[in-house]
Amino acid sequence: MRKIIFALLLGAFSTVQAQIEFAPAPKLLNKYDVMDTCQFKITYKLKIVPDTQKKSYTYNDVQILEIGKNSAKSYSYMLYEKDSICTKLNAKGVSNTPLLQKAVLPMEVFVSGKDNQTTVVYRTILGGPIYIYTEPTENIKWTIASSRKTILGYNCQKAIATFRGRDYEAWFTMDIPSKYGPYKFVGLPGLILSIQDNNKEYNWECIGIKKGNNKTTINKYKWEYNNTTPEKLEQIISRMYKDPIHFMQSLGAKVRNETNSGLSMPYNPLEK
């Protein structure tokens, strides 16, 4: 039934515009491995410019950074919210759950302070495969400036760095002496509360800070993963955004394009 609904919605939507947005389908959260105990939970508002030719068109996500004793995890709260609903409904015997109707950053990023490894879980659109890779945590070469400002009542200092093809300006606070930040941004002597690339295409702004407790854990869910590398995953993602219909069809979904125009999703890679 869901595959048929996809085809009908796509046919109606594609008559309006040639660019479309899909998010990953919800997943169950009832099976997981505990990676660490959460000491801080940081909430960021994330704004993404997916099309460099249309700077006024943005994705807006809410990102969570969970900081533990020896590691950190960042993920989309909007996806997590749908996963939580799916898990609760599944426990009641309901199989069809609502989909997220907008694009988000569909990654879970685990940074381990013990072995200096970063693991990325990437969820492709709808019910597509979930990919995973692990790489050495990059030693970002930060330059700390003298500029200061206040964010959410915390004294912050400016730092700049180049990371994976983008130049970034970050604001960190020594009031919370953590080396972590959202995504893969690590290595400053205080928690990153704001970070944005110089082209203003990716922008994380902290909107909330909450202390954890011994009962709050950082979890890695027991989903079915496909092992890959950063290079191979980037090729997969590029193909998915360039032709999402063919991508879904290759997974067995009954999706068709009822217009004569090509359909694509705007894509502006975070790492270049």
From TrEMBL:
<protein>
    <submittedName>
        <fullName>GLPGLI family protein</fullName>
    </submittedName>
</protein>
<dbReference type="Pfam" id="PF22252">
    <property type="entry name" value="PNGase_F-II_N"/>
</dbReference>
<feature type="signal peptide">
    <location>
        <begin position="1"/>
        <end position="18"/>
    </location>
</feature>
<dbReference type="InterPro" id="IPR005901">
    <property type="entry name" value="GLPGLI"/>
</dbReference>
<keyword id="KW-0732">Signal</keyword>
